[in-house]
Amino acid sequence: GVLTHLEMLEARAYEAAVKQEETEQQGEKLARLKERARELRRQRDELRAKVELQQKGQGGKEGALSDPAQPSARAVLEWKIKSLKAMLQMFYLTGISGKLTKRGVCFCVSTAYEGTYLDSYHLDLLTQPEVQIYRHSVPTFIPLEQVAKKYLQTDIRRFLSVLSDHLNAYAGRRYQADQLQEHFSDQLEGTLQRNSLCNLLVFNYHVSNQSETFLFNVRLLYGDLCCCLPTEVTVSCTPGAPACLAATAAAHSDLFRRTALHKAFRSFRRAEENVD
Fold first, then answer.
1. Has the keyword Hydrolase been applied to this entry (predicted)?
2. Which of 115, 138, 194, 248 has the smallest set of CB atoms within 10 Å of its CB?
3. Mind listing the pLDDT tens digit for each residue in 125-161?
């Protein structure tokens, strides 16, 4: 009735307001990160220039007086420590925090999805004689070794960024599957099947059509392991279903590609309530 329609409009208005607030917060956070990144690049360039001056001074003739403007080894070390601390502070704003240890650096990668904090993973790095992973709590199915081989020795920032993308995407996919089972179990038929990485989901769900209920089968494949949305979606009807349900299956398939899994089912439920 009218009250139900009003409640639906209020719910949509609330969701829109929440989404707008999240977008504004993300924009502010991105601006802070860009400003911090510019400052870190400036510090890096200054440090690099001072190190080059020092190296040129050391390459001069033996006994020659050094340029008093050149930084001492202690000053260079202090700049390196300051730069590393600044990098840790910048990463903290992106869900990555860290602290210096006697043997290197210990990082903590925190994961979240849609503003909901999920899990944290730790990574202990040794810096001498070369950067290497000492111990970690990253799940075995995350391609840590491949990411480390590609970036750890040459670009530790890139290494942490890519690793964070993998962990957050996995956490997001798992969160969606958990939300589906928790809030929409009445629409599912049987058990939702998923692998450890949650990049392959298979399940069945009910679809009502003219007082009859039919079963849809879904297969979601997340080919991009750094993404929370599937790259391949297959939605099929049970044999003998009306021809008109093929269009419904195509529409659901498109929604699964563009929308988080639990949000897609929320849309299905609203559509059925409006029909009722």
1. no
2. 115
3. 988 888 899 999 999 999 999 999 999 988 888 899 8
User: Quick one: tokens of 258?
Assistant: 């563009």
Residues sharing a CB contact under 8 Å with residue 192, sequence separation 6 or more, in sequence order:
177, 180, 181, 201, 202, 203
Q: What is the pLDDT of residue 64?
A: 44
Q: Residue ranges of the chain with pLDDT lower than 50? A: 61-66, 68, 92-93
Alpha carbons 31 and 38: distance in angstroms, whole number: 11
Number of domains within the chain: 2
Q: Three-state SS string across 36-64, please?
A: HHHHHHHHHHHHHHHHHHHHHHHCCCCCC
pTM score of the predicted model: 0.66
C-alpha torsion angle, residues 176, 177, 182, 187 (rounded to 10): 110
Q: Which domain holds residue 261?
A: 185-274
Q: How far apart are CA 16 and CA 153, in angstroms?
A: 44
Q: Where are the alpha helices (DSSP H) in 59-188?
A: 73-92, 144-151, 156-183
